[in-house]
Each structure stands twice: as C-alpha cells, then as structure tokens.
Amino acid sequence: MRSESPGRVLGFVRRISRLMFWISCGAILTIVFLTTVDVVSRRLGNPIDFTYELVLYLGAITIGFAIPQATIDRAHVVMDFLTVQLPPGLQRAFNITTRFLAIAMFGIIGWHTIKMGSYLHTTGQASAILNIPDYPVAYGIGFCCFIECVVLFFDVLEGSRGQEQ
Fold first, then answer.
1. 46: exposed, middle or buried (Cβ count in 10 Å: 0-12, 13-18, 19+)
2. 129 in a domain, yes or no?
3. CA 26 to CA 123: how far, in whole Å?
4. Best CA proximity match to 156, nearest among 69, 105, 98
5. Is the pLDDT confidence value at 71 over 80?
6. Range of the domain at 14
7. How far apart are CA 93 and CA 86, in angstroms?
8. Residue 141 in contact with residue 60, Cβ under 8 Å?
9. Which helix (H) or strand (E) holds 157?
10. What is the pTM assigned to this prediction?
11. Cα dihedral sign for 57, 62, 122, 108?
12. Which residues sit opposite 126 in a β-bridge?
C-alpha cells in the first residue's frame, strides 16, 4: 500500500501542474488579445486604461504557473557542458544536489511570497484602476513555488533510482 502512495501523489502533482500550465496558457493568450486590442484602440484614439495592470498580473500568472510543468517536461535550459565530462555517478550526485538546492530556493521564495500575500491582504493593496487586490496573485505564485518543490522532490527520487535526469 505504501509503494502506491508516492505514485498517487506524483500523479496528483502532475495533474495540478498540467492544470496550472493551462491557466498559464490562458493568461498568455489573454495578454496577447488584450495588448492587440489596446494597440488597435490606441490608434483609434481610445486606449484601454487598465491594460498595463492586467498585463502585470497575467505576466506573473504566466510565468509562475508554467514553472512546474516546464520542470516535468524538462523544458528548461540545462548548462551541462561541464558535467558531461563527469562519470555517471558524479553526474547523478550533481543533479540531485542541484535539485535539493532548487527545492530550498523555491521553498524560500514560496514562503516569502505567501508572507508578502498576507501583508498585501492585511493592507488591502489593490491595483490603481480596476481595484483588483494584489494578494491572490502573490498567494498563487507562492503556491506555484511549493508545487515546484514537490515536482523537484519527485525528480530527486527518480534521479536517485538512476532514471534519466
């Protein structure tokens, strides 16, 4: 029974990551649409006043929500020109070490982003034109960081078993 538990958790995290990825895709499409409409309406002398603040929020969502799926898909850039010269055992150790460092980094970023979200919630900070509260975006990015920590942890487990990095 215990051997199935990590598989279930990994499956759940993969589904969450995929959902977050599609949210990210929707955000980037909205940025493109909104920017296009704003540029056209500007040429007609009627700009959309809130484009800038929506693009800021959607940009944060686009980047933050795509990170876990990019890690799962190995879509990130790997600078391995030095590590390819190492023996396979050292390569695996190096990859595991860097994953643990990334887990620590995303954990710290996530924790501080959640703290910032709490501060933004307490102070009631919101966007200037649409009066959209800032804290949900901060909480969302913090959540993304914690999901990334779980994705990286499972990456470490796969790496320690000798699977492809």
1. exposed
2. yes
3. 29
4. 98
5. yes
6. 4-160
7. 10
8. yes
9. helix 135-160
10. 0.87
11. negative
12. 133
